Amino acid sequence: MKQLKLSTFLMVLFLGFSSCSAVSNLNPLDLLTGNNWVLSSLMGGGLDMFSGALPSLNFNENGGLTGSTGCNSFNGNFQLSGTDIKLDPGAMTRKACPGSGENQFLSALKNVSKFKIAQDKLTLLDGAQELMTLIPQNK
């Protein structure tokens, strides 16, 4: 009986370490690309400041960044090093937008320095401070 418990424990331990190493071997770029990430919170709060569509981000494998502020669209780039990230929205359309949502989103975007992805949620941070969270559009 003790042999069976020990074998079961060792198998669970092995599977746990195997799954952890598989996750840590994922390329950060692979985690970001392939989704249209839609804003789900900004500065820890709600999204009342957006009267129309919600902001979104798309990361391309070549370092391109496209998206929307909820009003205007942009086409820029990003730089990635591990979990450090720098976002540059680049060229942007200039439609007049109601409310303060666009300015708040762009201000937070400029301060992003790190990211993490867990449970289908992208969190963009300034150091340890959460700036915004995004979820895949199709989820």
State the main characteristics:
Lipocalin; 3 helices; 139 residues
In short:
The chain has 139 residues and is an alpha+beta fold. It has helices spanning 2-24, 28-32, 101-110, and strands spanning 37-42, 56-59, 64-68, 73-81, 84-92, 114-118, 121-126, 129-136. The protein has one domain: Lipocalin, CATH 2.40.128.
Q: Would you kindly provide a written description of the structure presented here, covering whatever features stand out?
A:
With 139 residues, the protein is an alpha+beta fold. It has one domain (26-136): Lipocalin, CATH 2.40.128. The relative contact order is 0.17. It has helices at 2-24, 28-32, 101-110; strands spanning 37-42, 56-59, 64-68, 73-81, 84-92, 114-118, 121-126, 129-136. It has an 8-stranded antiparallel beta sheet with strand order 5-4-3-2-1-8-7-6.
Q: What gyration radius follows from the Cα positions, in whole Å?
A: 19 Å
How many strands, what sense, and barrel or not for the largest sheet? 8 strands, antiparallel
With strands numbered from the N-terminus, the spatial order across the biggest sheet is: 5-4-3-2-1-8-7-6
Number of helices: 3
- Going by CATH, the architecture would be Beta Barrel
Order of helices and strands: HHEEEEEHEEE
CATH class: Mainly Beta
Number of strand elements: 8
Mean pLDDT: 85
What is the 3D shape? globular
In the CATH hierarchy, the third-tier topology is known as Lipocalin
Structural class: alpha+beta
- Share of helix, binned: 25-40%
Supply the number of structural domains. 1
Q: Which spans of ≥5 residues are poorly predicted at pLDDT below 50?
A: 4-24
Q: How far is the N terminus from the C terminus?
A: 45 Å
| Relative strand content | 35-45%
